[in-house]
Amino acid sequence: MADTKQMVRRILKHNDGKIDSIYFVACGGSLVDMYVSYYFLQSEAKTVSTGWYTANEFVHVTPKKIGPNSVVFVCSHSGNTPETVAAAKVAKEHGAYTVGLTFNGKADVLKYSDEKIVYEWGNEREVVHNPMAIMLDMATQLLAGIEDYDQLEEFRDGFNKIDTIVDNAIEQVQPRTRAFAEKYSNEKMFYILGSGPSFGHAYGFAICSLMEMQWLDAVPIHSGEYFHGPFEVTDKNRPYIVIESVGRTRAMDERALTFLHKYAEKVEVVDAKELGLDMIDSEVAEYFSPILFYTILSEYRSKLAVKRDHSLDVRRYMGKVAY
Fold first, then answer.
1. pLDDT by residue (tens digit) across 54-78?
2. Which residue of 36, 140, 204, 303 shows the fewest CB atoms closer than 10 Å?
């Protein structure tokens, strides 16, 4: 993992440690990677405000609170996503302290980053090196430095365990991911349910894995919102994927599943508890759910892509036409 401790020390030292807001700004999959850190601060912070912005909205509707007491995380895998580069520039112009993450050491986004993180990529079994884990690690340390957050040791233990949990879970899901691809390869529409810090990955799996990479229609639904409109379309023909978290919002996922098991037939459950996440302290385990789900859902999409003979890398518009 990147040397986050030194970075956090520099951030806390900047402006005499006066930090009143932390923002997460990106596009697409990089924005999804930020959701858990945003959710963590939204849930645990007492004095620090937070925001989660798609980059172009941040540029056009910049929060009035952005200033010298703000920290802004910006992330772009290529490092050159125009909207994200523009957002980083706007953050700097407003006096914020910026943290840039990318896979590209020569990225444009780094030109506007006070802290520069070039992360590792490609090894799905070493998730502590991915941007999601790096940002969550920094968010916990920042909060501890600002507000005396007292569960850093539980997080340290979780980061030490998560690679092993993910590695075991990959092996565990191989039969079911193959069965999923066989069963659902002809479907054209999926509903993805999730809650808590994992809702970001319900959204991400829908827009990135299914819509972008497989050209399939997909709708992310918060498990808590399912009974306030979306459940009216439930029947035995529509396929549902429920990413069942651990922690405080699991009850919402379970409630949705109880209904789905009664009125639907095409239901795939990806359960963080079953996949071993309860090895992590229950006070913080929910924040590791998205890290686990990213890799496991990648197994689902890979098997589906092979069965459908539709490469995950093929695009019609992205990077090919003007937009």
1. 999 999 999 999 999 999 999 999 9
2. 303
Contacts 24+ apart (CB under 8 A), 209-214: 209/297, 209/298, 209/300, 209/301, 210/301, 212/28, 212/315, 212/318, 213/301, 213/305, 213/312, 213/313, 214/301, 214/304, 214/305, 214/308, 214/310, 214/312
Q: Which residue has the tokens 């925001």?
A: 51
* Structure confidence at residue 184 (pLDDT): 99
For residues 241 and 248, what is the distance between their CA atoms, to the nearest angstrom?
20
Give the pLDDT band of residue 15 (cuts 50, 70, 90).
Answer: confident
User: What confidence score (pLDDT) does residue 148 get?
Assistant: 86
- Are residue 132 and residue 268 in the same domain, yes or no? no
Nearest-angstrom CA–CA distance, 72 and 88? 8
* pLDDT > 90? residue 123: no
**Which residues neighbour 173 within 8 Å (Cβ) at sequence distance 6 or greater?**
270, 275, 296, 299, 300
Please tell me the distance from the alpha carbon of residue 84 to that of residue 95, in angstroms, as a whole number: 17
- pLDDT of residue 2 exceeding 90, the answer is no
Give which of 24, 28, 26 is closest to 206, Cα–Cα: 28
Provide the Cα torsion 105, 111, 114, 120; round to 10°: -20
| DSSP type of residue 277 | G
In a domain, 157, yes or no: no
Sign, Cα dihedral of 168, 171, 175, 178: positive
What's 87's domain CATH number? Answer: 3.40.50.10490
pLDDT score of 1 more than 70: no
